[in-house]
Amino acid sequence: MLRIAVQKSGRLADKSRQILQDCGISFQQNGGKLFSRAANFPLEILYLRDDDIPQYVEEGIAQLGIVGRNVILEKGRKVEEVRPLGFGKCRLSLAVPRDQPYSSVRDFQGRRIATSYPAILSSFLQDKGIGSEIEVISGSVEIAPGIGLAGAICDLVSSGSTLLINGLKEVETVLESEAVLIRHRSFDTEQQRYLEKLLFRLDAVQKARTNKYILLNAPDASLERIAGILPGMKSPTVMPLATPGWSTLHSVVAEDDFWNVIDALRDAGAEGILVLPIEKMIV
Ligand code: PRT
Ligand code: ZN
């Protein structure tokens, strides 16, 4: 039996449960419970405060966990990052009052910085050879400069609107973070087998999320060029259309380069382009 620790409630909670369900693992939703057992996979799900997850995994109470990279590094627990999961993306950044001039990270020398991430921040400053005073607070970090507690802050940023509302500007990125799957250092043979099974499913889910299925029509003369733009998993499927001299081509396209690929396909003579989501992708 494997045990995975996920956030009970908060920004990562829903997506952590969703990704397990996308891996075909079904379990009763939380509803105030501290744990549930999957019906069709040897997995127990523990629901915790995100801050406690690295400790549970380090100690082997749970063999796996889903938590933000920022929390793992701050807690300094010995756990291994297995996969980035593509959600909960944010960055830990230094910010100063907007009306204050800023030239380089050296500006932080001798300044007081408020943060809930003292460990990550001090190692960043130490790397840069900068000595600052770190004021540790557990929340509402963004108000610290306004009330005179500190001259700068180091906090998580996603859209940037919290900084904007509080008259602050982001000046340095200390860490890029997202939700990650972590593991305990040792697994027995059977746990290892189930971990591999889970990772196989996770990879299929992740690949499906970052790719789209694409169908298009093209004159036969353009097919070679289009196949060069859309190599597919092995090579694209090509089938003749009822109209002589035309074919339909099916392939996959990566989400991150999507619009550039579409432009190139249109330039190459593609028409009637359809793009569909993929549910699972096993290569
Ligand atoms: O109760 P528990 O301890 O489990 O949860 P929590 O309150 O400590 O954490 P929670 O649920 O707020 O966040 C969990 C994880 O989500 C964090 O550890 C990050 O890995 C990730 N994450 C992603 C974020 C953000 N984006 C984020 N924007 N965590 C916090 N924020 C906060 C930030 O602190 C700031 O106050 O949102 C504000 C900034 O957001 P923008 O959009 O205005 O820039
Ligand atoms: Zn927390």
Structure summarized in a few sentences:
27% of the residues lie in helices and 32% in strands.
Task: Name the poorly predicted regions.
Answer: none
Q: Which assembly state applies to the chains in this document?
A: single chain
What pattern of helices and strands is seen along the backbone?
Answer: EHEEHEHEEEHEEHEEHEHEEHE
Beta-strand content: 25-35%
Largest β sheet strand count, sense and barrel closure: 6 strands, mixed
Mean pLDDT: 96
Q: What gyration radius follows from the Cα positions, in whole Å?
A: 24 Å
Detailed description of the structure:
By secondary structure, the chain is of the alpha/beta class. It is built from eight helices and 15 strands. It has helices spanning about 15-20, 55-60, 70-75, 120-130, 160-165, 190-210, 225-230, 260-265; strands at about 1-5, 35, 45-50, 65-70, 80-85, 90-95, 110-115, 135, 150-155, 170-175, 180-185, 210-220, 235-240, 245-255, 270-275. It has a six-stranded mixed beta sheet. It has a five-stranded mixed beta sheet with strand order 8-7-9-6-10. The longest helix is centred in the C-terminal third of the chain and has 21 residues, at about 190-210. The radius of gyration is 24 Å and the shape is flat. It starts with a strand and ends in a 6-residue tail after the last strand. It binds phosphoribosyl ATP and zinc ion.
